[in-house]
Write a structure and sequence with these properties.
121 residues, alpha+beta, three-stranded antiparallel beta sheet, 5 helices, globular
């Protein structure tokens, strides 16, 4: 393990932050589509995705500048989250030979995310 980042997000506070929910600002179309079908509800799911992006940024404080849509939280068929990186951030991570793995949890009106940075195998 190289680094770890953690973020806790109040779902109610997130829902009130309408600027974050605007299309194209923070979330990719794939993230929005996943959230619309989430059993926990779209806002709860987006809060978890947002927390995962924040956790990743905290885990990599020394990185090139990046945009929110360069960090994409995708989900495997099992529901397990994974990151997909785009643009300069993807190239930088590849050059470092690092992987970043997320974990997202929801409980009691909060979304929690952890991002673990490790070396590629």
């Amino acid at each position: 393990m190289i680094s770890i980042g953690i973020d806790l997000q109040s779902i109610d506070e997130f829902a009130a932050a309408s600027g974050l929910l605007e299309s194209g600002l923070c979330f990719t179309e794939g993230e929005r589509a996943h959230a619309e079908q989430a059993a926990s509800g779209a806002i709860s799911s987006l809060a978890g995705i947002f927390a995962a992006k924040e956790a990743m940024l905290k885990a990599l404080p020394m990185r090139p500048p990046c945009y929110w849509d360069e960090i994409e939280v995708d989900h495997e068929a099992s529901g397990r989250p994974r990151y997909r990186f785009h643009g300069a951030l993807a190239q930088w991570l590849k050059g470092q030979q690092w992987t970043v793995t997320p974990s997202i949890s929801h409980s009691g009106g909060y979304a929690l995310a952890v991002a673990v940075v490790g070396r590629e195998k």
